[in-house]
Amino acid sequence: MTTLGNYPARSPVLPPAGRADRIGTGRDRAAELRDGAAHDRDGAAEQRDHNADTRDTAADGRDRAADARDRAAEQRDSAAERSEEHRGATADSRESSAAARRDAAAARRDAASDRRDASSDRRAGAGERRYAGRDRGTAAGDRGAGADDRARGGEDRDASTADRGAAAAELLEASYDGLTGVYRRAAGIAALEREMNRARREGQPLMVAFLDVDGLKEVNDLFGHAAGDRLLVTVAAALRGQVRPYDAIIRWGGDEFVCVQTGANRAATGRRLARLNRVLAASAGGGSVSFGLAELRADDAPADLVARADTALYRGRKRRAQRR
Fold this sequence. Notes:
Order of helices and strands: HHHEHHEEHEH
Distance between the termini: 21 Å
Number of strands: 4
Mean pLDDT: 85
Strand content: 5-15%
Structural class: alpha+beta
Number of helices: 7
Radius of gyration: 49 Å
Shape: rod-shaped
Helix content: over 70%
């Protein structure tokens, strides 16, 4: 009799490749922040350029005002000279001429002040333009770094995809028997547990069949293990042909299989397995299986159900041996 050992409560699960995804998402977020900073810097540069334009405009206005003051000063000087020439050196003419020259000097001082202010405005505007250039350079650097972050994020995601592909291949290898293509034992037990839960939830019957390939040891001893492997492949293929596509088939041990049939009763399961033996008998290599059946009970664990089916197989063989 087969002894049910320890087994995991769940089937193998796909190892997460989330770390690389999280890194890629972080890089994309950093790229967005860099792009936002670049946009802000470009805005600041545009504002600085606008300020520089405003200062240049103000400087142009001051220069024009200075030119006007200079022209007014020249006109006053000319008026003072004409007054002195026509009126002679009277006290009134001298006072009038001196006043005109004082006005001209004041206009020139104002003009010089305007020109100094204009020069200051132009220097400030040039400074604004330099800062604007630096802002645009920093913005370009941010955008370049953001593009770099996005490229690295894509590489991280590619690595994540490769990790998932490798994990899926490992899961496939861990879940299915490489020779027969049916569930390995641990993954099959998890499938059995899922079917038991579903049957209870939906109020359906569930049958488990425990099968043993007859005479596999003799085939191995007489014809070699390659012949034994071919017999196992034949049995697994024939069993898949007799059960429904959604029925779980598990390779339990060397020559043992378990078949889980939800929604099936004992009679229907027995008929399917009887047909299986007829198919095997008619195959090129021949062969047969012995089997025992167990029906799901309310308090069954997977171990209980498989153990009862195994016991039914053992008892059936014992009865057949006694009849011989």
